[in-house]
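Box S2. Input/output pair 1.
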Amino acid sequence: VEVVETGGGSVQSGGSLRLSCLASGSPFNIGTMAWFRQATGKQQEFVASITSGGNIYYGDSVKGRFTISRDNAKNTMYLQMSNLKPEDTAVYYCRVNIDISSANQPDFWGQGTRVSVAS
């Protein structure tokens, strides 16, 4: 399974970016897809997740500003980020859960895409 994030870049505070995560190569259904981020010198932080059925969860720091969605037909997840703040600066990672069986649901991670927000 290959997981590839795209869409990172540099923006001014208050700007917007849209990240995409494509999962390819799996012969099994894709389960929950999620975004995490890690700023330099800080621990990894949960950003948002979306189940195959469309249940959505957000981290407290992004609620009301970020919107997660997915296109199951394209095996792609999106993160629309609005009203970006300098503290959103981080490398954003996509995690994809593969639903092989009820007892076997491995996770796969992408290499990350960098988001920089200037004040």
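Box S3. Input/output pair 2.
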Amino acid sequence: QVQLVESGGGLVQAGGSLRLSCVASGSIFSINAMAWYRQAPGKQREWVAAITGSGSTSYLDSVKGRFTISRDNAKNTVYLRMNNLTLEDTAVYYCYAKVTTMDLKAYDYWGQGTQVTVSA
């Protein structure tokens, strides 16, 4: 079994910054893609950013230039640096990872979510 635990959410004023972290633990052989998703009240969950095992990144258009995804493979951790936050960034942010476990099978895992609230 694998667990993903996010941290770093909170309340921030518009224009401010936050850094989210997500640590994976458990029966991990390797971690492939990692990503961040978010879900705002009354909306569907949407993909925000992703990073491959080799470090290639991709972003939702509305966060390009403001958010940066990175990972530390030695720590099984993915980060999301969020700058110049706007009210529209308010959401619960979820970490995702595709993990190859010790039985050499790949599974999708999700964290429990961390709340990011941006105030005016």
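Caption for Box S3: The longest strand covers residues 28-39. The chain has a mean pLDDT of 97.
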